[in-house]
Write a structure and sequence with these properties.
Radius of gyration: 17 Å
Largest sheet: 5 strands, parallel
Structural class: alpha/beta
Oligomer: single chain
Helix content: 40-55%
Order of helices and strands: EHEHEHEHEHEEEEHHHEE
Strand order of the largest sheet: 2-1-3-4-5
Number of helices: 8
Strand content: 15-25%
Length: about 220
C-alpha cells in the first residue's frame, strides 16, 4: 500500500489513478498532520510526500517518519531550486520528483524504489564485514561495533553495493545506474548528498572518512582492508 500525502486534491487524484492502473493499493492524506499519522499507523510500503502543505510541511513530516521508519520516501515538490532537493535528501528522503511531472516518470520512480526495497538479496555471502562494520544482507541491518545503525533503504543499498566491491571506484553516474536502478531524471548531486548522509551515520569523523572514501575527480569506493 502506498501513502499519498498531497494537499492539492486534483494532483492526489491523478497520482491515485495511475497507481491504481499499475495495480497498487493506496491511501490519501491531504495535509501533513494526517499524512504523518497514517505513515506511522498504516506502515505503507512507500510514501509520496508533497513539500508545501498546511499544518506540517513535507520536510518536517519526512524528519518525523525517519525517527522510526525506513520506508522509501519520494518527495513531490513544485520548487526547482537545488537547495530544496538537497535538503529533502539530507533529511532522509530517498528520491524526489519536481512538479509538473509526467505520470510515466512518477511510476518509474515508484517501481524502482519499491523494487529496491522488496528485492530479496541472493548472495553466497550473507554477511559483509570491514573493519568494525558488519552488514547482514538477510536481516537488512548494518552494525558498527555493537551498535546497530539506522539507514534508509537507499543508504543501505548504497553501502551494500560499495561494500561488495571493496576498493573499486565508481563514478556518480555509475552509482545512479547501479544503485538507483533506473535512468535517473535528476542530477549526480543526489549521490553526493546520499554519501554525505551515510557518512554522518557510520563515520566517527564524516569530514575524514574511514569507510566510504572519495577518489578525487573519479568517484567513491569502500575501504579495502
Amino acid at each position: 500500500m502506498i501513502l499519498i500525502v498531497e494537499d492539492e486534491k486534483s494532483i492526489a487524484e491523478i497520482i491515485a489513478f495511475n497507481l491504481k492502473k499499475e495495480g497498487y493499493e493506496y491511501i490519501i492524506a491531504n495535509d501533513g498532520v494526517t499524512g504523518l499519522k497514517l505513515a506511522l499507523e498504516k506502515n505503507p510500503e512507500l510514501v509520496l510526500l508533497d513539500i508545501m502543505m498546511p499544518g506540517i510541511d513535507g520536510f518536517n513530516v519526512c524528519k518525523k517518519i525517519r525517527q522510526s521508519s525506513e520506508v522509501p520516501i519520494i518527495m513531490l515538490t513544485a520548487r526547482s531550486e537545488e537547495v530544496d532537493k538537497v535538503l529533502g535528501l539530507e533529511i532522509g528522503a530517498d528520491d524526489y520528483v519536481t512538479k509538473p511531472f509526467s505520470p510515466r516518470e512518477l511510476m518509474a520512480r515508484v517501481k524502482a524504489n519499491l523494487r529496491k526495497r522488496q528485492i530479496e538479496i541472493i548472495d553466497d555471502e550473507d554477511i559483509i564485514t570491514s573493519l568494525d562494520i558488519t552488514i547482514d544482507l538477510k536481516k537488512y541491518t548494518v552494525t558498527k561495533g555493537n551498535t546497530q545503525i539506522s539507514l534508509t533503504s537507499r543508504e543501505f543499498d548504497l553501502i551494500v553495493f560499495l561494500a561488495k566491491k571493496k576498493g573499486q571506484v565508481f563514478s556518480r553516474e555509475q552509482l545512479l545506474e547501479q544503485v538507483w536502478g533506473y535512468e535517473y531524471f535528476g542530477d549526480a548531486r543526489t549521490v553526493d548528498v546520499t554519501i554525505r548522509r551515510l557518512r554522518t551515520k557510520i563515520e566517527e569523523a564524516p569530514e575524514n572518512p574511514q569507510y566510504v572514501l572519495t577518489k578525487r575527480g573519479v568517484g567513491y569506493y569502500f575501504v579495502s582492508e
